[in-house]
From TrEMBL, chain A:
It comes from Paradevosia shaoguanensis. Keywords: ATP-binding, Cell inner membrane, Cell membrane, Membrane, Nucleotide-binding, Translocase, Transport. This is ABC transporter ATP-binding protein. GO terms for molecular function: ATP binding; ATP hydrolysis activity. It is found in: Cell inner membrane. It holds the Pfam family ABC_tran.
UniProtKB/TrEMBL annotation, chain B:
InterPro entries: BP-dependent_transpt_permease (IPR050366), MetI-like (IPR000515), MetI-like_sf (IPR035906), OppC_N (IPR025966). This is ABC transporter permease. The lineage of its organism: Bacteria, Pseudomonadati, Pseudomonadota, Alphaproteobacteria, Hyphomicrobiales. GO terms for molecular function: dipeptide transmembrane transporter activity. PANTHER family: D,D-DIPEPTIDE TRANSPORT SYSTEM PERMEASE PROTEIN DDPC-RELATED (PTHR43386:SF1), OLIGOPEPTIDE TRANSPORT SYSTEM PERMEASE PROTEIN APPC (PTHR43386). It comes from Paradevosia shaoguanensis.
TrEMBL record, chain C:
This is ATP-binding cassette domain-containing protein. Residues 6-251 form the ABC transporter domain. The lineage of its organism: Bacteria, Pseudomonadati, Pseudomonadota, Alphaproteobacteria, Hyphomicrobiales. Keywords: ATP-binding, Nucleotide-binding, Transport. One of its GO terms (biological process) is transmembrane transport. It is a peripheral membrane protein. It comes from Paradevosia shaoguanensis.
Automatic annotation (TrEMBL), chain E:
It is a multi-pass membrane protein. One of its GO terms (biological process) is transmembrane transport. This is ABC transporter permease. It is found in: Cell membrane. Residues 99-311 form the ABC transmembrane type-1 domain. The keyword Transport applies. InterPro entries: BPD_transp_1_N, MetI-like, MetI-like_sf. The chain crosses the membrane at residues 7-25, 98-126, 138-164, 184-209, 246-267, 297-318. Its main location: membrane. Keywords: Cell membrane, Membrane, Transmembrane, Transmembrane helix, Transport. It holds the Pfam family BPD_transp_1. PROSITE patterns: ABC_TM1. GO terms for cellular component: plasma membrane.
Amino acid sequence: MSDPVLSVRNLNIDYIGAQKDFHAVKNVSFDIAPGEFFGLAGESGCGKSTIAFAVSRLHRPPALIRAGSEILVGGRDVLALDEEALRSFRWREVAMVFQSAMNSLNPVLTIEAQFYDVLRAHTPISRTTARQRAAELLKLVDISPDRLSSYPHQCSGGMRQRIVIAICLALNPKLLIMDEPTTALDVVVQREILQRIDTLRKQLGFSVLFITHDLGLMVQVSDRIGIMLEGELVEVNDAQTIYRSPKHDYTRRLWASMPKLHGEQIREVRS
Amino acid sequence: MRQLLNNKKAVVGLTILILIILVAVFAPLLTEYSPVKRVGRPHQPPSWEHWLGTTRLGHDVFSRLVHGARISLAVGFGAGLMITIIGTVLGIIAGYKGGVVDEIINFFTNMVLVVPNLPLLLVLAAFIGQASPLVIAVILALTSWAWGVRVTRSETLSIRQRDFVKSAEMLGEPSWRIMAFEIFPNLISIVGINFIGSVIFAVITEATLEFLGLGDPNTVSWGIMLYNAQNASALSVGAWWDLLTPCFALALLGLSLALINFAIDEIANPRLRTGGMLNRWTRMVRLGEGKL
Amino acid sequence: MSEPILALDNVSKIFGSAGNPVYAARSVSFALRPGRTLALVGESGSGKTTAARLIMREYQPDDGRLLFRGATLGKADRKSLAAYRASVQMVFQDPFASLNPAHTIRYHLERPLRLHQGRLSGSERMAMIEELLARVKLDPALVMAKYPHELSGGQRQRISIARALAVNPQVIVADEPTSMLDVSVRLGILNLLNDMKAQLGLALLYITHDIATARYVAEEIMVMYAGQIVEWGDMESVLGNPQHPYTRLLLSAVPDPDRRFDQTPFEDELNHIDVIRRQSALPQPETLQVGENHFIRPMPR
Amino acid sequence: QTVLTVSAEQTTTWVRNFNPFGQTSARFTTLDFIYEPLVVFNRLKGNEPHFRLAESFELADDLKSITFKLRDGLKWSDGEPLTADDVVFTYDYIKKFPALDFISISAQLASVEKVDDTTVRFNLNEPNSLIANTIVSMPIVPAHIWSKIDDPVTFANENPVGSGPLTEITRFTPQVYEQCRNPNYWDATNLAIDCMRLPQLADNPQVLAALAEGSLDWATSFIPDIDNTFVAKDPEHHKYWFTPSSLVSFQLSMTTPDENNRKAFNDVNFRRALSMLIDRQTIVDIAGYGYPLVNEDPSGLGELYKAFANPEVATQFGQYGKFDKDAGIALLDSSGYVDANGDGFRDNPDGTPIAIDIEVPNGWTDWIDAVQISMETLQEAGINVKMSTPEAAVWTQDLIDGKYSMTLNALAAAANPYFPYIRSFNPGDFGKSRFTAPHWDNAEVMDLLGKYTQVKDPAEQKALMDKAQMIVAEALPLIPVYNSPSFYEYNTKRFTGWADAENPFISPVVSNANPGRLIQLLALRPVSQ
Amino acid sequence: MAFLLRRLSFYIAAFLAAATINFFLPRMMPGDPIQIMFASAGSELSLENLNALKLTFGFIDAPIGEQYLAYLKSVFTGDLGRSIKYFPLPVTELLARALVWTVGLVGIATLVAFTIGTTMGIMAAWRRGTLFDSVVSLSAIFSSSVPAVVVSLIMLFVFGYTLGWFPNGYAADPLLDPAWSWQYISSVIYHGTLPMLTMVIVLTGGFAVTMRNNMINLLGEDYIVMGRAKGLSDRRVMFWYAARNALLPTVSSLAIAIGTVLGGSLVTEVVFNYPGLGNTLYQAIIARDYPVIQGQLLIMTAAMLISNFAVDLSYVVLDPRLKKA
Ligand SMILES: Nc1ncnc2c1ncn2[C@@H]1O[C@H](COP(=O)(O)OP(=O)(O)OP(=O)(O)O)[C@@H](O)[C@H]1O
Ligand SMILES: Nc1ncnc2c1ncn2[C@@H]1O[C@H](COP(=O)(O)OP(=O)(O)OP(=O)(O)O)[C@@H](O)[C@H]1O
Ligand SMILES: [Mg+2]
Ligand SMILES: [Mg+2]
């Protein structure tokens, strides 16, 4: 296996409180290989987003990444970057799709401006070239370039999410983080988008960190899966292995409570 | 309430406010002079006998200050209460009932909002003549409820979309009960902010009207103190104590109320809270215990 | 099969302007029967909630009839509505929004009792509250005095169900009752609904976009798209042998850990998503029986 | 060019209006300075006449007509001659447009006729020895200009053609205007001023600021603590001289709606007791900054009309005009005004309660202060008083109708005590004028006043006035408090010739109610630099 | 567009309603307006004289409906009658004179306060919890809670009387003629400094608090986080992403704030004797100059309506979501 794109070691993150701290991520370590589709699953509040934010160092106070944690992207220590280095690191190396398609585009800027924004921030580029590049990117996600002059509210939810993905690809990042990118969408659109990501990944070779609480979906799309429980990463393994022969008791319980679409229905698990 | 007491701003604000209230309640015990009797020569500077000096008429400024707190507080809280009640009731009805009722209330609200308030008050007070504190409070209430309706209405609109209102409807709760027991309790912080904001507004406006000479000179209030001082050319004859005393009292009352308001805002909206955690956070970052 | 207690007969509901009508329900017909669960699935915006609201008589149908115990319901007036609501209750999707944060759990359960259970003494009422809580498997001593925000999502959803049960209804409409819950607690709620149905002989309308859970609780299923029910019938028959292109599309898109992306059935539908959507949105007046209890509305050619 | 800087009027913006009939709207430099009076009567010198446009006047023996003789060769500022025709025109004019007649003189005139080019005779409806005083306060306007004006009431007369010393408006902005020499002024030799400049000053503090920095030469403004705030800035040049003017008195309505109050108010002993409970000196010192003059004269004349005073008044009734708390209380006790019902307030002898509400117009702060000071002693004496401050218009109406219990009221200064008396006591004016607020009806006084205007002999007049004073002083229908001062501040740095206490040759107040200001203007001489 | 049309028709209705109130207000009050006018002017007139004047000022004895129609007609033809105190100046001219000063004072003060306040609010929200934030929040709370009367009196006392740095009143040296000369303009600036400063102090806090709270609410939004994730500079995210969106509610509160601004300017103008609309209204009220009071209320209402409309317009420009609606 080649050098990992992302390597998280002993990650500890606290939310500082007035009296007591909340230990949101506890000693988490995992790797993502180039081109890998890595899924991170777990219940609401277990710290998935907290990890995702830490990778791009997007946290704001009172979050605190504890000393001793390590996040390496392409071998570079993200936690050691200064302001300026961090700025150019973001999006160029790690791009991110957020949970809600509704809200991750700036409502008062046109789609084009939001492409231009990110291109401009990282490369000296003229408006026309930026426009061309944006049009190309939109084509990748199957959206007509006319949309460039639209405002976000003029596009449907699925469209918006695809636009965000196109923006994510603008700088050819090594890693694409997707924090529950499709929960607000219906299954057909969700399917469409994930399939497109999968194709693009194969085409462009980036890795994906995919966060969701939909286990069925996770197994369907991921190469490897990490299961989180209350801030801890309790199990990391191959997707099929996790599905067919879970090791951790918690993982087992999760599968047991998932009704099945076909074949024999699960037994009621009564506690 | 406990949250209020955990908020530093609220504690400071409440302390000042309670102090002012206590001073107002125990005014007769705190002062040896009557606020309406000449007890010294005109415009004596502050001294042992007259802590804050005397007015142009020879009244004791401290005594007037302390007694004046009663009127300022009474008008402030009285008018504030009326403004809040009108605003809340109309706001909830408009927001919950919707339709024609909403249209009508909303139209009047917007109407009242676009008529410049203070000038209108000024004209009303002038026409009524000898506006006693009670009259001022009433006209304040009648002309200043619109802002409250607007915020209460928009908040009600969002609350009525919430499922608990729907489930109350499905249970067959009568609409007055839904408004009073389902929606209203969730508006408490908005109502609180509206109330305190209205109190500030009422205190300021009463003082302003009286300062402009539209009040009743028989009253002992901070606004009348300002008016008398201004009339006695306190500034040009150098009697700063006469004018600045009510100024500072008003500023202090305004400040304490604004602090409370700010605190309620923080409590209602956790995002605004800064609290102690940010201090702790800064300290920990400085100690190298971690970073963002 | 038992007699339907509640039925929609060719009900339509249109929103929007005359120039740009939105068919939230178009000739919708179905029936709810005691002791049975009917699942209504469909993507977001297909009109599921509208159907629920029509049943709850929040909306008046623009066309068609609502039948309760065989009788057509006319325009809702205050009194008949109150009586109706004692029989038909609803459980909402969002456990965080469906309980009033300002009131205790006890208050939430006391209100329906006061409104619908006639004159009860205080202790009788307390006993009933305790019984309700026990029925939804919560410890009365622990939760009674708590406020909603002190409970977990699953617990809150149980309270919602208890509240619906408090009026002693015959029909419960559950609009996506588990979509906001974690996987591990989801099943508990579904089991609870199943138990209630069995024990109290309730007629249940279970609305969801998660077909897997629908299969878990319901005997029958309806697939809705753009206000129309495009396919309906026995659960196993519809899932095992979907006939309508839209149903196929939906089924192919549903996450299924047993199938990787590349092994999806109905490839054809997946490649023509837009065409299927467009055509499924057109009026489909005909009904075609494809199985013993399995119907579709075929797309127009 | 000699420029005199004056503040005669306070406003926030100048409006170009020199219509001499516009009492409330014309610039205050219109009368006297643009439209010269026929005669100026010197109030400080027993109404000695300074003849201006007229060189003499003569009252007929039957007192039923008066004839004015104009100077020869008078000219309007545009060069047209000023003749008896203009005078007759003016009086015809105000008859035609009654809104112009701001002193209601037409009613007293039977006719105005031209005798010759320089002589005019005014025929009166009633004999009146004092008519000249009234006639001279109506400005005379040029017929050749005003005959062409369609609506003289709203006419702003922006470029006035006048007869006075300063008629030319050379500059007019909202902030300042200048009024300069009349090229055809008859008395030009006596006029040493070329222009008068009127900066716009909005209120007393602004006038004070301008005075203190020395930019104003002549002003009329209330100034607090004047010795410190104005004089001390330049003791050599900053001067003031306040002369007594209108009478401020407490008044009780004899027709007040409350029956119980009415009983007390109609009892002279009650009025006397109230009068003795008013601490006039304190009111003057505190409410008036020491500027007004205490008036302890029960007949109301006081310092202002000292020349007319009957010494008997002081000896017989003098004590009722002075502050004496103990005597006041004693008088109340002895007249039966004691606390009958134990509520802490004195009641009528028959036990009915008295409750007095002193009305003062809203915003009249010095009066409000005065009332508050008076209330202290009245309350100490056990009288139930409170103050209310209605809108000025409401107050005026209450006074006119006599529907108030007690009030402060003011009466403008005049040349002769006849005027304050007739204005206050004339039953014909009850219900019409606020000056008759007490509604005190005394036929004897009216009879005396009626005769007063119909006799010509000064000795006879004095006897009548003496008698009237005694009646008034005995009944005390007005409770005099003080005479308010007329404010006069001046600066001797650039001009000399100012009237002052040492040389009181005329009343020098520059307000538009004092025609004497014309004489003062002509007396000014620039200081040579 | 439909949005603007709807607002516009509301404003017209509101203006009509305000005009109607304006008409009935003096007629509902006790006392005869003419009597009140002249009583306050301090002169005593005979009855005949009064009646003659009444006619001159247009107080006709027509039925109320007829009077109302005449009034409406005059309002829409821009004829607000003549001032009584400043007779025969037409009310419109009097107000036009004052308007210049108020627009200057209020306009600049609002602009300055808005700029400072919003910027402070933005930066405080961005650096939430820092010392800077605490200082800004506290001074903003203080500034927004202290009455304009108090601020202006204290400013006047400190800088006008005690230190003598600035004049105690008026908008320019009265002896100077208005002109585009440096002398005159500097005099205007010199005289305007204290009132301006007062207004800025009174207004800034409110803007700062609103902006700070809006910003903080927005900072958790996904698109802000995405802006940061995109590697944009803090400045760009702060102003182009957060502030621009946080401004929207602030702008709409600006419309309501204009009422407060007018109120604040009234007091400030009175204290500093600034010859603006507020002071004119105050003088008119003192003198019971009805035509001016009525005209003034109309003008102020119109000003509020116009600025509300301007806010609506800018809202449409700022928020593309409204364009289609
Ligand atoms: N600003 C904050 N202050 C304090 N606690 C926080 C803050 N943000 C998150 N937390 C807590 O940290 C924990 C982890 O949050 P996180 O958002 O990472 O969860 P998640 O796994 O992404 O959940 P979800 O699936 O709901 O998005 C949660 O319990 C949450 O309550
Ligand atoms: N009150 C309303 N006014 C106008 N349009 C409405 C209204 N309620 C629903 N609609 C429209 O009717 C259609 C059906 O809405 P409905 O809420 O029933 O869908 P749904 O299937 O429940 O969706 P979801 O899964 O998101 O809850 C949608 O297009 C919606 O926009
Ligand atoms: Mg998350
Ligand atoms: Mg729905």
